[in-house]
Amino acid sequence: MEEGTSKEPTPCASNQEDYDALQWDVREGCEVRQILDRVADKWSLLVIAILESRTLRFTELRREIDGISQRMLTVTLRQLERDGLVRRTVYPVVPPRVDYALTPMGTTLHTTIRSLVTWTEEHQDRIAEARARYDAQAGVVGDLTSAGH
User: Going by C-beta distance under 8 Å and a sequence separation of 6 or more, which residues neighbour residue 135?
Assistant: First the structure.
């Protein structure tokens, strides 16, 4: 069982009439919440983006993703494989060769990720301006993340 995953996830709503867009956000065992937690984390997003149109070995992936540890890449790939988004192929050679590629379902997710990246690129200047205004009003000096916020 992967960390942060319930043994028996439950659907968020039994039918469309009962659907509440925020329901998944408050129910820990909700399957939709678990899936969103997985695919929306920064490492998963980067792995999916990098594997968009190519197959890579573990070391090639690690080289492509600045700042990821070997352990975190291993965990991320296992989770994405478990969810059916990444395919792992092991070749019986010495030394062992393992390739990673997106599955057809993983490829469909990449389209959504591309939209998110496009939105970010289109709005990055406005976000930077908003951050500068906020920091000036709050009297914040330097990066908020260094202060533990």
Answer: 141, 144
